[in-house]
Predict the structure.
Amino acid sequence: MKATEAKLLAFLKKSPQFVIPIYQRTYSWTDRECWQLWEDILRTGRNDSISAHFVGSIVYIEQGLYQVTSQSPLLVIDGQQRLTTVTLLLAALAKALKKLDDESFEPIDGFSARKLRNYYLLNTEEVGDRHYRLILSQIDKDTLIALVADSNQPRDHSLRVTENFALFESWIADCKDDLASVCKGLAKLVVVDIALSRDQDNPQLIFESMNSTGRELTQADLIRNFILMGLEPTLQTSLYKKYWRPMEVDFGQAAYGTHFDGFMRHYLTVKTGEIPNVSEVYEAFKTYTRLENAAKAGVEALVADIRTFSRYFCAMALGAETDQDLGMAFQDLRELKVDVAYPFLLELYHDYAMGILAKEEFLEAIRLVESYVFRRGVCAIPTNSMNKTFARFTNVLKKDRYLESIQAHLLGLPSYRRFPTDEEFRREIRVRDLYNFRNRSYWLRRLENYARKERVPVDEYTIEHILPQNKNLSGAWKKALGSEWERIQEMWLHTLGNLTLTGYNPEYSDHPFIKKRDMNGGFKESPLKLNQGLGQLETWDEEAIEQRADRLSNLALKVWRSPKLSPDVLETYRDGVAQSGYTIADHPYLVGGPLQKVFEALRKKVLALDPCVSEEFLKLYVAYKAETNFVDVVPQQKRLRLSLNMGFSEINDPKGLCKDVSGVGRWGNGDVEVALSSEDDLPYIMGLVRQSFEKQMGSVGDV
């Protein structure tokens, strides 16, 4: 590696050509980064006491062997965002200077339109791609060439490149009386010129370690570079064109930047059963590639598999599904924002695509997921464990009884992860504030369109409170509601029985019910299913609201249906859980002696953490489980040895009682060990146990 400081413009002028490799991300600077650069240039250009402004590093490697007669293009490893942005600025400045009356006008020496183009934008004696100083990758390439050549843009042009060029054009126009400052600022830009040796330097390691300015690389950027950067160029190009580029096209320019990181996180969850931290997807991916099966399959099989699962993700999350029934089901999931279920659904989609899961069962499974999430939302059950519920769901599937095993698992979920029963859901949806529910357009649309072949576009309607929101109700409304009108309005205003859809919201206003019913376009004439029966009512009071809530809650049970399995079938799944056959009697230290009282106090508090906690006596220890073991108790003669199922670095232990037992053979699960021998220590020990329990429950922010 050779690193030297250089003026950016001099660096551009002497370099034959910069090429952005195909594995690099597309141009991604936003107006925020461009504005920061523009401000730095103006500030530097207007202040003679500032001699230079550092804008980062340009790291490159020669594409081929250097020869005196023909310099090879330079492959940019890091710095393409700055190079591209400065090129756009120079192109916009050259275009602005060309419009001036005097062609030879130069705000400062070396900054005529002709010199800007010939020094920094073009290789005037070359043809084809070699004619241009900077060659971008993918969709950005033709867009930049068209801008520099002042020709028509390609139909599928880069939005970011064209938008930022337009920004610089507008800023230069606003600064037309001070172009000298712009030129001076550009002349003062400084970079670190870092040339790599193909034989001695590892571009990937250098790329990872660069602390460059500008827009931070996404996890997907790092993953793509990790896969492709070190490959032989022919294979690199082949894999990119065959697998990676089609993924970028499927996602589209905007969604690739916003959704691809999330997709890779879901993909790794499917493959490993563990949910990577949002900021550590790249590290989790590198770990995954080193696993025996992935490493043995090879890089092409890996990229092909990512490509396959990306199709499923685009179908579900980006509306690319071609099957009408599945497409509507995925639309409902997207509106409900059920991202946490994507790892589970990706596995199901793969089995559906492979012919293992029939379409009808796949569709029913999607609807069950939708019901599970919506019912829990209505019943106000915390969502902080749902990601782990879905991440581990595939572990319990019996693919010879696919749908049945899904239903059985949902019905068997413990209290904090439960599938709300029909009774609980019906009770809660009648009284819940659904007007301020985050998905109110979703539930209204689902109720209105249930069993309809001709779907109603709910977005064309507005939500209507039959009993108005206005606290200053008219005399007619107060009379209809009776002496307790304030209580009735407060209790039922935003609930299921009082909410509907209309295209006449302004006309309805706060008018009495009879006028709303009989007016032109009123409830009597409404074609909406939600308004059925309103045209036959003579008054709108508490009884009417409750009766309508009853009717709609019964409909809701059909829309968001629960799994249905006979008790006999459910029992077969419960019987499938292996029982150890051991009891407390198999642990003599717990039956008599000084530890018996300590253990009884401990087990009482552990079991009281949540109704879902279960206790299982094994041969050598006692396991306490939620999702899985979170604390194991190994009885010893003078103490209880507790194993906490979490990493040692995760435990908060101010007293320093815990030991790191990672890599040490012993009974129990987890890397944390702590001893308990006295009831006096129980409050502190329970604080440690609770950390392990809450980590497994996902209540430490992993939503």
In short: The first strand starts at residue 2 and ends at 7. Residues 64-70, 210-214, 699-703 have pLDDT under 50 and may be disordered. The radius of gyration is 33 Å. The CA atoms of residues 281 and 287 lie 10 Å apart.
